[in-house]
Amino acid sequence: MVSRIAKTSFGVYLLHSFFYPFIGVEKQVTGSLFLIPFHVMASCVVIYLVASIVYQVYRLTIGKIILSISKTFFDRIAYKI
Contacts from 51-54 at CB under 8 Å and sequence distance 24+? Predict the structure, then answer.
């Protein structure tokens, strides 16, 4: 469980700057002081969930393709030696 959270957290690190224009920080800062912590928590949860979905798509598609290619490549090298 911890390793899955860590892998998704790296995705959050990579994707968080992409989401800044969509979370409306400027609008929330001028709003209620009481709602700012909730907005920050909700933004974090949404960005984490999107990064988790992106990681799962990568793992199920591109990750398997790369693993297959690398396994074939390294098997050919080992066979020649």
Answer: 51/8, 51/9, 51/11, 51/12, 51/14, 51/15, 52/8, 52/11, 54/11, 54/15
